Amino acid sequence: MPQAVLYAAASFICAFVLAQAVTRFLGLFVRVKGNSMKNTLHDGSILLAIRPGGYRRGEVVLCRYPHRTVRTIELGAAFSLTWHTLFVKRLVALPGDTVEIRKGQLFVNDSPVPDPPAMGSAPSDYPPRTLRKDQYFVLGDNRRASHDSRAADVGPISGKMLQGHVKAVLWPPKRIQIVK
Asked: How far is the C-alpha of 138 from the C-alpha of 143, rounded, in Å?
């Protein structure tokens, strides 16, 4: 009986380590909750996000926000596991860019950025802000229903808060697509 317990424990630990390695270094699956990316992405859709880096303006990203953790488990003084709430947004400005919303129109470096199809413009203005090194500005495509970098409790996010490139919708079958 003790061998069976050891085997089960070893199997669990190996599966956990493998799952952590895959999600940390390759990619992860995420379920959309809410309408902040409507009509690009829909509530309940399952997405594939690929890691790591090399982010470009205009792409859909998986990110976390400041002070938004689901749970933290302390495993001694030197080690802890933290699960973060993840958000799907569009990366609209990179470090060094100046972002502004005037009369509902998004501008990046004084150039207008077209609004996502059928969603309309941002409901309020945002004063010009030049992003510092390692600051990124994210917005939901549904500007009227998105909590994003415009909000004081979010603001521009750091590069380490970017968690992956959203590449595809995998579920439901009628919405399977490559994300642009």
From this structure: 11
